[in-house]
Protein backbone atom coordinates (compact mmCIF):
# COMPACT_ATOMS: atom_id res chain seq x y z
CA UNK A 1 0.00 0.00 0.00
CA UNK A 2 1.20 3.47 -0.83
CA UNK A 3 0.19 6.32 1.45
CA UNK A 4 1.30 9.22 -0.68
CA UNK A 5 2.27 8.99 -4.33
CA UNK A 6 4.87 11.62 -5.15
CA UNK A 7 3.59 14.34 -7.44
CA UNK A 8 5.20 17.54 -8.54
CA UNK A 9 2.62 20.30 -8.55
CA UNK A 10 2.86 23.42 -10.68
CA UNK A 11 1.18 25.69 -8.15
CA UNK A 12 1.60 28.78 -10.30
CA UNK A 13 -0.36 27.12 -13.10
CA UNK A 14 -3.03 26.00 -10.65
CA UNK A 15 -3.36 29.48 -9.17
CA UNK A 16 -3.79 30.94 -12.67
CA UNK A 17 -6.46 28.37 -13.54
CA UNK A 18 -8.27 28.95 -10.25
CA UNK A 19 -8.28 32.66 -10.92
CA UNK A 20 -9.85 32.09 -14.34
CA UNK A 21 -12.60 29.90 -12.98
CA UNK A 22 -13.33 32.17 -10.00
CA UNK A 23 -13.65 35.18 -12.29
CA UNK A 24 -16.57 33.51 -14.11
CA UNK A 25 -18.84 33.72 -11.08
CA UNK A 26 -20.43 36.78 -9.46
CA UNK A 27 -19.38 35.39 -6.08
CA UNK A 28 -16.02 33.68 -6.07
CA UNK A 29 -17.14 31.05 -3.55
CA UNK A 30 -19.70 29.83 -6.09
CA UNK A 31 -16.80 28.36 -8.07
CA UNK A 32 -16.07 25.88 -5.30
CA UNK A 33 -16.86 22.67 -7.23
CA UNK A 34 -14.86 23.45 -10.39
CA UNK A 35 -12.08 24.87 -8.22
CA UNK A 36 -11.88 21.67 -6.19
CA UNK A 37 -11.80 19.62 -9.39
CA UNK A 38 -8.97 21.75 -10.71
CA UNK A 39 -6.99 21.40 -7.50
CA UNK A 40 -7.54 17.66 -7.42
CA UNK A 41 -6.40 17.44 -11.02
CA UNK A 42 -3.11 19.13 -10.12
CA UNK A 43 -2.43 17.48 -6.79
CA UNK A 44 -4.01 14.10 -7.52
CA UNK A 45 -6.01 14.51 -4.31
CA UNK A 46 -7.20 17.29 -2.07
CA UNK A 47 -4.24 17.81 0.18
CA UNK A 48 -4.05 20.59 2.79
CA UNK A 49 -2.08 22.62 0.24
CA UNK A 50 -4.82 22.08 -2.34
CA UNK A 51 -7.43 23.40 0.08
CA UNK A 52 -5.24 26.40 0.83
CA UNK A 53 -4.89 27.21 -2.86
CA UNK A 54 -8.63 26.90 -3.43
CA UNK A 55 -9.45 28.97 -0.35
CA UNK A 56 -7.03 31.70 -1.35
CA UNK A 57 -8.45 31.94 -4.88
CA UNK A 58 -12.09 31.86 -3.76
CA UNK A 59 -11.59 34.12 -0.75
CA UNK A 60 -13.02 31.54 1.62
CA UNK A 61 -11.54 29.41 4.36
CA UNK A 62 -9.83 26.04 3.79
CA UNK A 63 -12.42 24.62 6.21
CA UNK A 64 -15.23 25.72 3.89
CA UNK A 65 -13.51 24.10 0.90
CA UNK A 66 -12.94 20.92 2.90
CA UNK A 67 -16.53 20.79 4.11
CA UNK A 68 -17.82 20.96 0.53
CA UNK A 69 -15.32 18.37 -0.73
CA UNK A 70 -16.19 15.94 2.04
CA UNK A 71 -19.78 15.82 0.77
CA UNK A 72 -18.91 14.39 -2.65
CA UNK A 73 -17.50 10.94 -3.49
CA UNK A 74 -15.71 12.31 -6.54
CA UNK A 75 -13.23 14.19 -4.37
CA UNK A 76 -10.26 12.39 -2.85
CA UNK A 77 -9.45 13.45 0.69
CA UNK A 78 -6.55 11.02 0.79
CA UNK A 79 -3.91 10.35 -1.90
CA UNK A 80 -5.36 8.48 -4.85
CA UNK A 81 -3.86 6.39 -7.62
CA UNK A 82 -3.96 7.10 -11.32
CA UNK A 83 -7.00 4.90 -11.71
CA UNK A 84 -9.96 4.59 -9.37
CA UNK A 85 -11.79 1.28 -9.05
CA UNK A 86 -14.96 1.43 -6.97
CA UNK A 87 -17.00 -1.62 -6.07
CA UNK A 88 -20.64 -1.17 -5.15
CA UNK A 89 -21.33 -3.23 -2.05
CA UNK A 90 -24.96 -2.24 -1.60
CA UNK A 91 -27.78 -4.80 -1.43
CA UNK A 92 -28.35 -5.74 -5.08
CA UNK A 93 -24.64 -5.98 -5.81
CA UNK A 94 -23.97 -7.82 -2.54
CA UNK A 95 -26.58 -10.41 -3.51
CA UNK A 96 -24.87 -10.84 -6.89
CA UNK A 97 -21.40 -11.45 -5.46
CA UNK A 98 -19.90 -8.00 -4.84
CA UNK A 99 -18.26 -9.28 -1.67
CA UNK A 100 -16.39 -12.03 -3.52
CA UNK A 101 -15.51 -9.55 -6.26
CA UNK A 102 -14.04 -7.17 -3.73
CA UNK A 103 -12.08 -10.01 -2.09
CA UNK A 104 -10.64 -10.94 -5.48
CA UNK A 105 -9.65 -7.35 -6.28
CA UNK A 106 -8.03 -6.98 -2.87
CA UNK A 107 -6.13 -10.26 -3.30
CA UNK A 108 -4.89 -9.47 -6.79
CA UNK A 109 -3.98 -5.87 -6.00
CA UNK A 110 -2.46 -6.72 -2.63
CA UNK A 111 -4.36 -3.92 -0.90
CA UNK A 112 -7.57 -3.40 1.04
CA UNK A 113 -10.47 -1.17 0.01
CA UNK A 114 -9.52 2.43 0.70
CA UNK A 115 -5.88 1.88 -0.24
CA UNK A 116 -3.65 2.53 -3.26
CA UNK A 117 -1.19 0.10 -4.83
CA UNK A 118 2.51 0.68 -4.19
CA UNK A 119 3.08 1.77 -7.77
CA UNK A 120 0.41 4.48 -7.42
CA UNK A 121 -1.55 2.94 -10.28
CA UNK A 122 -4.81 1.90 -8.69
CA UNK A 123 -6.96 3.03 -5.78
CA UNK A 124 -9.64 0.59 -4.66
CA UNK A 125 -12.74 1.78 -2.84
CA UNK A 126 -16.19 0.56 -1.93
CA UNK A 127 -19.20 2.73 -2.69
CA UNK A 128 -22.90 2.80 -2.02
CA UNK A 129 -25.47 2.09 -4.75
CA UNK A 130 -24.36 3.35 -8.15
CA UNK A 131 -27.87 3.18 -9.55
CA UNK A 132 -27.12 0.21 -11.80
CA UNK A 133 -28.80 -2.41 -9.62
CA UNK A 134 -30.50 -4.15 -12.58
CA UNK A 135 -27.06 -5.12 -13.86
CA UNK A 136 -25.39 -5.94 -10.56
CA UNK A 137 -22.68 -6.32 -9.59
CA UNK A 138 -21.47 -2.94 -10.74
CA UNK A 139 -17.89 -1.69 -10.67
CA UNK A 140 -17.01 1.90 -11.50
CA UNK A 141 -13.65 2.33 -13.21
CA UNK A 142 -12.59 5.96 -13.43
CA UNK A 143 -16.27 6.90 -13.06
CA UNK A 144 -17.38 4.70 -15.97
CA UNK A 145 -19.58 1.78 -15.07
CA UNK A 146 -18.79 -1.82 -15.85
CA UNK A 147 -21.96 -3.75 -15.15
CA UNK A 148 -22.55 -7.48 -14.62
CA UNK A 149 -18.92 -7.56 -13.59
CA UNK A 150 -17.64 -11.10 -13.15
CA UNK A 151 -14.72 -12.32 -11.06
CA UNK A 152 -13.09 -13.57 -14.27
CA UNK A 153 -12.88 -9.93 -15.40
CA UNK A 154 -10.72 -8.86 -12.46
CA UNK A 155 -7.37 -9.97 -13.86
CA UNK A 156 -7.96 -8.46 -17.33
CA UNK A 157 -9.09 -5.19 -15.72
CA UNK A 158 -5.93 -4.90 -13.64
CA UNK A 159 -3.76 -5.75 -16.65
CA UNK A 160 -5.60 -3.14 -18.72
CA UNK A 161 -5.19 -0.39 -16.12
CA UNK A 162 -1.54 -1.13 -15.42
CA UNK A 163 -0.74 -1.25 -19.14
CA UNK A 164 -2.43 2.10 -19.70
CA UNK A 165 -0.24 3.88 -17.14
CA UNK A 166 3.08 2.60 -18.50
CA UNK A 167 5.22 5.64 -19.20
CA UNK A 168 2.86 8.12 -17.54
CA UNK A 169 4.30 11.05 -15.68
CA UNK A 170 3.42 11.71 -12.03
CA UNK A 171 0.82 14.25 -13.12
CA UNK A 172 -1.10 11.98 -15.45
CA UNK A 173 -4.16 10.31 -14.04
CA UNK A 174 -7.67 9.33 -15.02
CA UNK A 175 -9.31 10.57 -11.84
S1 LIG B 1 -26.78 -1.92 -5.33
FE1 LIG B 1 -25.05 -1.82 -6.62
S2 LIG B 1 -25.65 -0.51 -8.22
FE2 LIG B 1 -27.34 -0.50 -6.87
Description:
By secondary structure, the protein is of the alpha+beta class. It has 2 domains: 11-69, Orthogonal Bundle (Arc Repressor Mutant, subunit A); 83-164, 3-Layer(aba) Sandwich (Glutaredoxin), CATH 3.40.30.10. Helices cover 41% and strands 10% of the residues. The chain is built from 7 helices and 4 strands. The chain has helices at residues 11-22, 32-43, 48-58, 62-69, 91-95, 98-109, 154-164, and strands at 83-88, 122-127, 139-141, 144-146. It has a 4-stranded mixed beta sheet. A hairpin with a 2-residue loop joins strand 3 and strand 4. The protein is globular.
Mean pLDDT: 91
CATH topology value of the largest domain: Glutaredoxin
Instruction: Pick out the low-confidence regions.
Output: 1-6
Q: Tell me, what is the CATH class of the largest domain? A: Alpha Beta
Number of H/I helices? 7
Briefly note the structural class of the backbone.
alpha+beta
- Report helical residue fraction: 40-55%
CATH homologous superfamily grouping of the largest domain: Glutaredoxin
Beta-strand content estimate: 5-15%
Largest beta sheet: strand ordering: 2-1-3-4
- C-alpha Rg (nearest Å): 17 Å
What ligands can be seen in this structure?
FE2/S2 (inorganic) cluster
User: What is the architecture of the largest domain at the second tier of CATH?
Assistant: 3-Layer(aba) Sandwich
Amino acid sequence: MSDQPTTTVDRAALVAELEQVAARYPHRKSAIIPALRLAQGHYGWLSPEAFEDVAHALECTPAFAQSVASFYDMFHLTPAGRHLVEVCTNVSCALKGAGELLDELEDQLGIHAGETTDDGAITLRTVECLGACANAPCVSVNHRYREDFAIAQVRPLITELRASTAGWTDQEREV
